[in-house]
Design brief:
The protein is α+β, with helices and mostly antiparallel strands and 633 residues long. It contains 23 helices and nine strands. The strands form two sheets. It has a five-stranded antiparallel β-sheet, with helices on both faces. A four-stranded antiparallel β-sheet has the order 7-8-6-9, sandwiched between helices.
Length: 633
């Protein structure tokens, strides 16, 4: 535009040259025309995103102005002035042509025409320079008119260049707009989130591939908002339509909302929408964009976290935190009488020690499921601790709580648990008056539970120990046969030593269950045909301690625990697990130790190729008498 403007002013100066002095007219016209060429050079550089050479342009312009003024006012010479103007203009035009030609990457008719116009302009200026060769009198009429004609031709060609440049800019603008439109469309199609573009009349203009990927709806399936809301939202379609309408009613506001979307294949997913008005189409239709984020997975995780924060992961019942919150919430007159039930699983530790924590988990889940299936809808059942359960019964008296406990116990008695008997001890207390402290009621229920547990636990543990021995004997026939032989040999030794009948009976039982701790050892170690590794030997040596802990948990078997614990001790203190010496070792353990060793030498073992005869075994016992074995035994 600068080039066009300067050319127009130049021609205007020629037209009015009769009204102003000729020198002023020529100077103004040529200076303005030169500035037009400079503006053309700067404009082309910027158009092609090249940095203009401002230093060269500034130096050239200053030098041009200086020389032009010198040869116009001081050393008046039209030909030299024309030479100065033509040289500087030609140099500037050549720079413009060079930048333009270097920037064309492909054939374009508009840009080719512009190149031709620049070439003509260069030619016009060259002709103007060649005119200097025409003989004439300085300052003649011919000089003035030829110079003016040349200026007019330059202005005409320059105007054509301006028009050509405007055409290039227009084409480039259209190209940029198309390219931007293509980029915008691709950005919608390839967006990593679901996007829909729609207009105020409900037409769906475009949807992203991600929209289709997640919902399985193609654009052809949902040509309008009405189709989309009908298929994706069903009975809630009007709510969504009202939401979309607000986008156009309040275009300056942000509109967001979370909706459940039914996909084409019938799945339900949660989308969080963020919608807004984005402008108008050329035909005047208002357009909005709805961007969705699939929050289904996030919500599922949040629900899972929320569930885990208030539920016991193993049993599915509520956890202690939730129970305490509900106890505080329900502690009001409306829920009186408020009964609290505390329960403690019997024999859980013994089950864990003997069969592993997975067996204990099965026991807890079995009891938890029975409790959950028998409580009312407004009751709160929770796993209070490792082996404890708590039940909150709003609006239930002690009698009502007892009915519930009886129902639960009946179900527990019917429960099938392969590791023993399912048993739980309960305690109940009830808050009847507002003034009662609910925490004291809770503590009372817990105390009653512990009292009941003392009466019920021992029989359960005894049954569990019997189950453990039966399981061990089923697990390994060789262990059962070995235990029976050791028991018989121990009884013979005890009888010959003149021990009391009670002691003999205890020794018989101890010897029968002296390997109870082996229930926790893998069968491949127990019946390994070859020699045990050091690691396997360490595992085997733990069985006396494991067995004594199991026996100590039951009042019925407590007195037998020490004899089982020390049956691998030696008189010289080199045995295990405690390294006891001499009389520190119980007599029962000494007897079982001799019987165990004798059977080990005389019975067939998978790791021994040859057994010893009775005489050889006796000789071996005597050989180690006083070191490994007790001399009296």
């Amino acid at each position: 535009m600068g080039f066009f403007l300067f050319n127009a002013i130049g021609v205007f100066g020629i037209y009015f040259r009769e009204s102003i002095p000729i020198f002023v007219s020529i100077i103004i016209t040529n200076l303005i025309l030169y500035l037009g060429y400079v503006s053309l050079l700067i404009g082309i550089s910027r158009f092609y995103k090249r940095k203009p050479a401002y230093r060269i342009i500034a130096v050239s312009t200053i030098l041009f102005v200086f020389l032009f003024l010198v040869f116009t006012y001081i050393e008046t010479s039209f030909k030299i002035r024309i030479l100065v103007f033509g040289s500087f203009v030609t140099f500037t035009t050549l720079q413009t042509y060079y930048i333009h030609s270097k920037s064309i990457k492909s054939f374009n008719i508009t840009r080719s025409i512009f190149s031709t116009m620049l070439s003509i302009l260069i030619l016009v200026n060259v002709i103007r320079l060649l005119m200097l060769l025409v003989p004439s009198n300085a300052g003649s009429f011919l000089d003035y008119n030829l110079d003016s004609l040349n200026i007019i031709l330059t202005a005409i060609v320059g105007s054509m260049i301006s028009v050509g440049l405007l055409a290039i800019i227009n084409n480039q603008t259209l190209h940029d707009l198309k390219e931007f439109g293509s980029i915008f469309e691709n950005s919608i199609n390839n967006a990593p989130t679901p996007i829909m573009i729609h207009d105020e009349f409900g037409n769906v203009i475009n949807i992203s591939r991600n929209w289709t990927k997640r919902s399985h709806y193609e654009k052809e399936d949902i040509p309008t908002i009405f189709d989309w809301t009908r298929k994706a939202y069903g009975q809630n379609k009007q709510v969504v339509r009202d939401f979309i309408k607000k986008i156009y009613d309040f275009p300056d506001e942000r509109h967001d909302g979370e909706f459940v979307v039914t996909t084409k294949d019938g799945r339900q997913i949660n989308w969080d929408f963020n919608s807004g008005y984005i402008g108008k189409l050329p035909d005047g239709r208002r357009v909005a964009m709805s961007v969705a984020m699939d929050v289904t997975e996030r919500q599922e995780k949040e629900l899972k976290i929320s569930y885990l924060s208030y539920h016991d992961q193993l049993t599915g019942l509520y956890n202690r935190r939730f129970f305490e919150e509900q106890l505080s919430r329900l502690d009001n007159p409306r829920n009186l009488p408020l009964s609290i039930v505390m329960g403690d699983v019997n024999g859980l530790k013994l089950i864990n020690d003997a069969f592993g924590h997975s067996a204990g988990d099965v026991l807890l889940k079995t009891i938890g499921k029975i409790i959950a299936n028998n409580i009312r809808g407004n009751d709160i059942a929770a796993r209070w601790g490792g082996d404890e359960f708590a039940i909150l019964l709003p609006g239930s008296s002690t009698t009502g709580a007892e009915v519930l406990i009886n129902r639960i116990q009946n179900e527990i008695n019917k429960a099938n648990f392969k590791y023993g008997t399912v048993s739980i001890s309960f305690g109940i207390d009830t808050k009847f008056e507002k003034a009662q402290d609910v925490q004291k009621v809770f503590n009372a229920a817990e105390e009653i539970m512990y009292q009941n547990k003392l009466n019920e636990t021992d029989s359960i543990r005894g049954e569990t120990i019997n189950t453990i021995m039966n399981t061990l004997f089923e697990k390994s026939i060789s262990v059962r046969e070995h235990s029976e032989r050791v028991s018989n040999i121990s009884v013979s030794i005890a009888d010959n030593m003149g021990l009391s009948k009670t002691s003999v009976n205890d020794i018989k039982t101890m010897a029968m269950i002296h390997n109870i701790g082996k229930i926790v050892i893998d069968l491949h170690i127990l019946e390994k045909p070859g020699k045990l590794t050091p690691e396997e030997r360490k595992i085997i040596e733990k069985h006396p301690l494991s067995g004594s802990k199991m026996l100590a948990s039951s009042h019925e078997y407590t007195r037998l625990a020490a004899g089982v614990l020390h049956h691998h001790e030696r008189i010289d203190g080199k045995g295990y697990p405690n390294g006891l010496k001499g009389d520190q070792i119980p007599i029962e353990s000494k007897i079982i130790g001799v019987a165990d060793a004798f059977d080990a030498m005389t019975a067939e073992r998978p790791y021994r190729n040859k057994t010893l005869s009775l005489d050889e075994a006796v000789a071996e016992l005597k050989k180690h008498s006083g070191t490994q074995f007790d001399a009296k035994v």
